[in-house]
Amino acid sequence: MPIALGNVSTTAANIYVSSGNTTVSFLSLTNYSASNVTANVYVVPSGDTASNRNSVLSELDITTKDTYQFYAGGEKLLLSNGDAIVANASANVSITSVVSYLSF
To answer: Which residues are bridge partners to 28 per DSSP?
Structure first.
């Protein structure tokens, strides 16, 4: 399965954009900073923007040096072409993302 790696900043930005139809089977956010950081994650349909309407994690507190696994253990998220996973955090240069996906 391919993976997409990214850094999460204070501005909401894509951490993964579906090219064709894809299944997301794993998503993690890791706080590698020395302080706790909060994160927000949105699943955004193609042509839309991140908002409360498509929020799937809101102000998730990730403690220092900890990882939060959003999709794991057999869960799946099905995305159409252009759909995106968007994230932002309370601090820059603190959180990295890993997304594993499969095209179908």
So the answer is: 69, 98
Q: How many domains does the chain have?
A: 1
In this predicted structure, the answer to whether residue 75 has a pLDDT above a threshold of 90 is: no
When pLDDT is averaged across residues 49-53 and rounded to a whole number, the result is 97
Whether the full predicted model's pTM is greater than 0.90, yes or no, is yes
Rounded-to-10 torsion of CA 21, 19, 102, 50: -90
Residue whose C-alpha is closest to residue 98's, from 10, 31, 22, 12? 31
What CATH code is carried by the domain that includes residue 76?
Answer: 2.60.120
CA-CA-CA-CA torsion sign (14, 68, 40, 70): positive
> Could you list the residue range(s) of the whole structural domain that residue 87 is in?
3-103
